[in-house]
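Figure 3 (text version): C-alpha cells given as input.
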C-alpha cells in the first residue's frame, strides 16, 4: 500500500467508538482498490477533537510535503467499490480544468449490512442564495443524475487536485477551520469554483455511505434533525450563516435577496421550532465582526 512517491494520499479521520465499527470494512474496500499508487494517512480525533477542517488540513499538508498529486478525503463510514479510486484519478488525469471529482455515493445501511440503490449524494448542487444540497439524495438511482453539473463533491468522499487546493488555501488552511464540522465541503467547493476550477461527478466510481446527517425533502430534513445529535444541529446551523457572511460580497443583488430571505426563514424556524439554537447567534455575530475586521485589513 505504501509507495516511494504516492500519487494519491487517502486521508481519514477516526473518532473512537463512533468510527471503530466501520474500520474493518473500510480497510477491506481500500485494499481491494485496482488503483494501487496511494498511501493511507489517518488522524485520530478521539482524545483531542480538532474538528473536520483542522484535522484534514494537517493531513493535506502532510500530502503536500510528500509532493502528492491528489488528496482523497473520505469518511471511514464509506465503502468503496474496487475500481472507485481508479475511476476518480482517471477523471482528474484526463481533464486538467477539474479541481475535484465526486464518486456516486449510494446509501449503506450498515446495521442491516445492506448496500442499497438509494442515492446518498451525486455531488453538491448549488442554487442562488448560497444554498448547497446533495444532488439526488433519497432518490432511487436509475442513472438520472449521471450527467448532472455539480459545484463540488460531498465531504464524505472527494478527490481533490493538490495544486487546486494550494491555490485556494488561505493562511495555510485548505478547509476553513472556522467550520469545525459540517458545510466545510460547501465552502471549499465554492472557493474552488470562484478560483476557476470545475468539478464533476464520476458516476462509474461507486461508493456506499452510512450517513449520519441526512438531507432530502423539507420533511426529511426536519425529522432528521430530531434524530441527530444537538452538536451536529448547532454546527450545521452556525456554518450556514458563516457561508452567508463569508461569501456575501461576491453575490449578485438577486442572490443577496435570496440570502436575506433564507436567513429570515431560519430565524423564524429557530424561534418557533428550535429555540435551543438561539444562543448560536452570538457565535454568528462574533464571526461577522471577525470577518468584517479581516475585510478591512485587505
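Below: residues designed for each position.
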Amino acid at each position: 500500500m505504501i509507495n516511494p512517491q504516492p500519487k494519491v494520499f487517502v486521508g481519514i479521520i477516526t473518532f473512537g467508538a463512533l468510527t471503530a465499527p466501520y474500520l474493518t470494512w473500510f480497510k477491506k474496500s481500500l485494499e481491494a482498490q485496482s488503483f494501487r499508487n496511494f498511501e493511507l494517512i489517518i488522524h485520530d480525533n478521539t482524545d483531542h477533537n480538532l474538528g473536520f477542517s483542522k484535522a484534514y488540513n494537517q493531513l493535506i499538508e502532510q500530502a503536500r510535503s510528500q509532493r502528492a498529486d491528489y488528496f482523497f478525503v473520505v469518511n471511514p463510514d464509506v465503502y468503496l467499490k474496487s475500481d472507485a479510486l481508479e475511476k476518480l484519478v482517471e477523471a482528474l488525469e484526463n481533464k486538467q480544468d477539474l479541481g475535484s471529482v465526486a464518486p456516486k455515493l449510494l446509501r449503506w445501511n450498515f446495521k442491516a449490512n445492506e448496500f442499497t440503490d438509494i442515492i446518498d449524494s451525486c455531488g453538491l448542487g448549488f442554487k442562488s442564495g448560497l444554498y448547497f444540497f446533495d444532488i439526488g439524495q433519497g432518490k432511487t438511482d436509475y442513472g438520472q443524475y449521471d450527467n448532472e453539473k455539480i459545484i463540488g463533491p460531498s465531504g464524505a468522499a472527494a478527490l481533490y487536485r493538490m495544486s487546486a487546493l494550494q491555490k485556494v488555501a488561505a493562511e495555510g488552511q485548505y478547509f476553513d477551520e472556522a467550520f469545525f464540522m459540517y458545510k466545510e465541503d460547501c465552502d471549499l467547493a465554492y472557493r474552488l469554483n470562484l478560483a476557476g476550477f470545475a468539478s464533476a461527478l464520476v458516476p462509474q466510481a461507486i461508493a456506499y455511505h452510512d450517513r449520519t446527517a441526512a438531507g432530502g425533502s423539507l420533511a426529511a430534513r426536519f425529522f432528521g434533525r430530531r434524530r441527530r445529535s444537538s452538536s451536529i444541529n448547532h454546527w450545521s446551523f452556525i456554518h450556514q450563516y458563516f457561508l452567508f457572511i463569508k461569501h456575501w460580497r461576491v453575490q449578485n443583488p438577486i442572490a443577496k435577496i435570496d440570502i436575506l430571505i433564507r436567513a429570515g426563514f431560519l430565524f423564524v424556524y429557530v424561534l418557533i421550532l428550535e429555540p435551543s439554537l438561539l444562543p448560536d447567534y452570538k457565535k454568528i455575530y462574533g464571526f461577522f465582526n471577525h470577518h468584517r475586521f479581516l475585510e478591512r485589513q485587505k
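Strands lie at 8-14, 38-44, 70-74, 78-80, 98-109, 114-121, 124-127, 131-134, 157-161, 198-209.
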